[in-house]
Specification:
The complex is a heterodimer.
Chain A lengths: L22 H54 L15 H9 L19 E2 L13 E8 L7 E5 L11 E7 L5 E8 L1
Parallel strand pairs in A: 1-2
Antiparallel strand pairs in A: 2-3, 2-4, 4-5
Chain B lengths: L14 H10 L8 H21 L3 H4 L3 H25 L4 H4 L4 H6 L2 H15 L7 H8 L7 H14 L5 H9 L6 H25 L2 H6 L1 H25 L12 H6 L2 H19 L25 H11 L1 H26 L10 H12 L12 H47 L7 H13 L4 H19 L5 H4 L3 H21 L2 H9 L6 H12 L1
Helix pairs in contact in B: 1-2, 1-4, 2-4, 4-7, 9-11, 10-13, 11-13, 13-15, 16-19, 17-18, 17-19, 19-20, 24-25
The chains are: A alpha+beta, B mainly alpha.
């Protein structure tokens, strides 16, 4: 149980005391600095991706708030302000395009990760890089046998939105991780 | 200010001297100075956490009142601390020599920092100060940690004068005679970061929390990885200063293969892999490996060392009982398959599948998802389960006994070392500190340490009188033989120098001595 003497070499009969700071020390310190800079850089990149995820989440939340509000109007058969999204002979693709059209509530909506990427996608797919940062709108179908819970699947472009739909909004965030935003009735 | 009154009054127990000796006297090891400093440091760190939390609306908005109360509480504590230090300044040797000790205290760097930590909030009552500015000024409270850090750095520099950079790094990361308090602080810092990062990993798995604190978790993880990476690299760099590794070829490779160092590596590697490769493959599962960081704490605990030693010592017995356990599992699974396969082909499809059922049954877990239905299968299960209770309990009992035994041995070793220290009848402050450290590692309470010291002191006193403690004699017949001879020689000397007649009279007085004692006296007197 003796205490570690820690570097006893110079305490003994070493006739050539080691320099305070040699070349080997310098190499190690440089290596440590390189690793430190790498961690900071990777941390910053991850933080940037995290910030983009937050931005995408905010977009998703805004869309969820709008759809929830308009969902109530649709239920009563009222006008949502976007004819393509009203209850009628409309398809989801038409409503989606109307949402981001010029002058529409989400006209300025862009993919926060890359403006070239999709704004809306069917799923978060690592093999389809353009889905990174997209908003995923899914349709809920009652699960058998009693239908008390819902199973969510892609809301196809040609899906009719005449009847009220159970919707789940998610986003494809950092490292293609799916973040669920809200479940609502539209 | 009356200078004559402001001189140190250690001899008289005035309120000021009592407060000073209870809370601030660093030379008194039995006062509350260390605890007081520790709680103040914890409050400073809690303030930092509170400041960071205030920037997260999801946390701050619903708990505004709590944050305000905590701030008021901190302010009150820091104010009381400042006033107490001001009050006892004439008692402090640092200021006592001055003609105006309290004035000298007010303008001392630490006091200025203390004042800066509280003054803005009192000024805010009179002058309008922006809330954001106040929050920034609260960062000044962090400077209060200087009171702990600066003396530790000074001590470390003093201890390491003339030593190389690498030796200093080694002393900073490992407990050595050159380490001092700075190494303790370093250890505490690492332990705190391990705990913070593990709590973060656990909370991250709660979707609702992760959703709100996504960015905060990213920052926490990056900072933790930065700290742990630097620790890993500098441990690897300085390990050659370890006396055990100095003579080894490729010492660093040998060191890097040690289990605790492998754990250090595994604690940081998921971050690099995930950050560099997240676009290629889904490596989120690696995040759970960040919980390995918890194992880093084993470096700071002796319990795992004791367990490892116990395991190494009892390994052959544990291996033998494990072998019997495996035999039992395979036998039970085979019999289960034999009797139940036809009745339940889906559950007892093959022997490997039946092994799951066998382990669950023998270990008395009994989930009940698979159970025998045939009469022979049930009978066999009853017998195997009864045997299993005994067989599965054996390794646990061995391990528990070995652990206790190892702890007992370590304590005996410490006791022996204490006796060695006490040979001269006194315990130097360095020896006392070493004993306390070892006692802490062996989970011996300070009260028990004091008892051990007292016992060692009595043993030393007896040894100095030529009497060996019975504990040391009982297993050593050669020493006992020598001690008896010394005792006989002493008796002869007493008999030769004393007045024999008077001694004889005393022995003859009824009730003064036993027959055996009288008989021994006669033998001595005759020779």
């Amino acid at each position: 149980m003796q205490a570690d003497t820690g570097g006893a070499r110079d305490a003994g009969g070493d006739h050539h005391p080691a320099p305070y700071f040699g070349l080997k020390d310098l190499i190690f310190v440089i290596f440590a600095i390189v690793v430190g800079v790498l961690v900071i850089n990777l941390g910053y990149t991850t933080w940037e991706d995290g910030s983009r995820t937050e931005e995408t989440k905010a977009n998703g939340e805004a869309l969820a708030a709008w759809m929830t509000e308009q969902g109530l109007k649709r239920e009563k058969g009222d006008d949502t302000g976007l004819p393509a999204c009203n209850r009628g002979d409309s398809k989801w693709s038409q409503c989606r395009e109307a949402l981001v059209a010029e002058g529409a509530p989400f006209a300025s909506l862009k993919n926060a990760f890359d403006t070239k990427n999709l704004v809306f996608a069917d799923a978060c797919d690592r093999n389809r890089l353009d889905t990174h940062g997209s908003i995923i709108v899914e349709k809920g179908i009652p699960k058998p046998p009693d239908g008390s819970s819902l199973a969510y699947g892609p809301l196809a472009d040609d899906e009719s939105i005449t009847e009220p739909l159970a919707i789940r909004i998610s986003i494809c965030g950092r490292a293609f991780a799916v973040n669920h935003i809200a479940e609502l009735k539209f | 200010m009356d200078a004559s009154r402001d001189t140190p009054e250690k001899s008289t127990h005035t309120l000021r001297s009592l407060v000073y000796s209870w809370l601030f006297d660093q030379t008194n090891p039995n006062n509350f100075q260390k605890s007081f400093d520790k709680w103040i440091s914890l409050l400073i760190i809690a303030n930092l956490i509170s400041m960071l939390a205030e920037h997260v609306p999801a946390i701050y908005d619903p708990h505004k009142q709590f944050f305000h109360l905590f701030d008021m509480f901190s302010l009150a504590v820091f104010t009381v601390e400042y006033l107490l230090r001001f009050f006892v300044a004439p008692q402090d040797p640092e200021f006592a020599k001055s003609g105006m000790p309290r004035l000298k205290y007010i303008f001392s760097p630490y006091a200025l920092i203390d004042l800066a930590a509280i003054l803005p909030f009192y000024l805010a009552a009179f002058i309008s100060i922006d809330l954001r500015m106040l929050r920034i000024l609260r960062l000044l409270r962090l400077l209060k940690l200087a009171r702990t850090l600066v003396p530790a750095i000074k001590e470390f520099r003093e201890l390491n004068k003339g030593r190389t950079f690498r030796q200093q790094v080694y002393a900073l990361l490992n407990p050595t005679e050159y380490s001092g308090k700075l190494q303790d602080l370093m250890d505490t810092f690492i332990v705190w970061w391990v705990l913070i990062s593990v709590i973060a990993v656990v909370l991250e798995s709660v979707e609702a929390i992760h959703y709100v604190l996504n960015l905060q978790f990213i920052v926490l993880d990056a900072v933790a990885v930065f700290i742990f990476s630097m620790e890993y690299i500098f441990r690897l760099y300085s390990c050659v200063e370890n006396p055990e590794l100095q003579k080894r070829f490729a010492a660093r490779i040998h060191y890097a293969r040690r289990p605790i160092v492998v754990i250090d590596f595994l604690a940081i590697v998921p971050f690099f892999l995930e950050s560099l490769m997240n676009q290629l493959i889904d490596l989120r599962f690696l995040r759970i490996f960040r919980l390995m960081r918890l194992l880093k704490l084993t470096r700071h605990s002796t319990s795992t060392g004791t367990l490892t030693k116990a395991l190494q010592r009892e390994w052959p017995v544990i291996a033998a009982s494990t072998f019997i356990m495996l035999l039992m599992v395979v036998l039970t699974a085979s019999l289960g398959f034999l009797f139940e396969h036809e009745a339940q082909p889906d559950k007892f499809e093959n022997i490997p599948q039946a092994i799951y059922w066998a382990v669950i049954t023998l270990a008395s877990v009994g989930y009940g998802d698979i159970s025998p239905v045939t009469p022979v299968g049930r009978l066999m299960t009853v017998i195997m389960a009864l045997i299993g209770i005994g067989i599965f309990a054996v390794p646990a009992a061995i391990l528990s006994t070995a652990f206790n035994d190892q702890l007992h041995k370590d304590r005996e070793l410490m006791h022996a070392e204490l006796r060695e220290f006490m040979k001269d009848g006194e315990l130097s402050p360095e020896e006392y500190a070493q004993v306390l450290q070892q006692a802490d590692e062996l989970h011996i309470s300070p009260a028990e340490v004091e008892l051990l010291i007292e016992q060692a002191r009595q043993d030393a006193a007896e040894m100095n009188r030529g009497v060996l403690p019975l504990e040391m004699i009982k297993d050593k017949p050669e020493i006992a033989f020598e001690q008896i001879r010394i005792a006989i020689s002493n008796l002869r000397q007493i008999a030769a120098t004393g007045n024999r007649q008077q001694i004889q009279q005393l022995f003859d007085t009824p009730g003064k001595a036993t027959d055996d004692e009288r008989s021994i006296w006669r033998q001595i007197d005759r020779s």
